[in-house]
């Protein structure tokens, strides 16, 4: 939130400066759980560097829901807002630098920002863009084959394919690593014929 907001909305910098001292900076290795499934989310997570995934456990198998990269923020939203057990684990998948801002300070910040005339439009725009992406992914998961989902990932979010390990991508696409390898081989063979 704060990092990309500072760049996109410099008129709000006075607020970011005020809350930076309340943020806990953490340098963490890969596979560090920032929130565990079943815990109540107490912090908003801001990613300075690195990659984070949200996933849940289904009968001992990880099901990746989403990936997050530099200059983005996340929480288990329902858990964070309504103080309910999180449905997801949030975990780093590469060495990362993250900042945690407590729920108390986030609520104070939101209250202060709500008095800024442009803030509601900013939040609505960001929420709409994220909601559209999640809806597109949901529809794709229902409508498209795994191969079509992988091609969509390659064209629309190639940074994921470049940075994220194959078994996490397979989990995100809802296939096994073996199945993803077959899809990649088939696509490679198809390119050879052109």
From TrEMBL:
InterPro entries: cNMP-bd_dom, cNMP-bd_dom_sf, RmlC-like_jellyroll. It comes from the Bacteria. Residues 27-111 form the Cyclic nucleotide-binding domain. This is CRP-like cAMP-binding protein. It comes from Dyadobacter fermentans. The lineage of its organism: Bacteria, Pseudomonadati, Bacteroidota, Cytophagia, Cytophagales.
């Amino acid at each position: 939130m704060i990092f990309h907001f500072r760049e996109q909305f410099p008129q709000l910098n006075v607020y970011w400066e005020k809350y930076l001292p309340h943020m806990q900076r953490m340098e963490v290795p890969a596979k560090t759980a920032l929130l565990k499934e079943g815990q109540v989310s107490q912090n908003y997570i801001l990613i300075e560097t690195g990659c984070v995934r949200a996933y849940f456990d289904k009968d001992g198998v990880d099901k990746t829901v989403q990936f997050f990269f530099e200059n983005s923020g996340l929480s288990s939203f329902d858990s964070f807002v309504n103080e309910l057990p999180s449905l997801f684990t949030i975990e780093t998948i590469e060495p990362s630098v993250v900042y945690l801002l407590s729920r108390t300070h986030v609520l104070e910040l939101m209250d202060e920002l709500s008095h800024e005339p442009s803030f509601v439009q900013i939040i609505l725009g960001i929420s709409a863009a994220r909601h559209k992406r999640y809806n597109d992914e949901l529809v794709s998961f229902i409508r498209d084959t795994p191969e079509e989902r992988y091609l969509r990932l390659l064209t629309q979010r190639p940074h994921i394919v470049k940075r994220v390990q194959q078994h996490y991508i397979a989990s995100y696409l809802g296939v096994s690593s073996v199945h993803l390898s077959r899809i990649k081989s088939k696509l490679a063979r198809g390119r050879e014929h052109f």
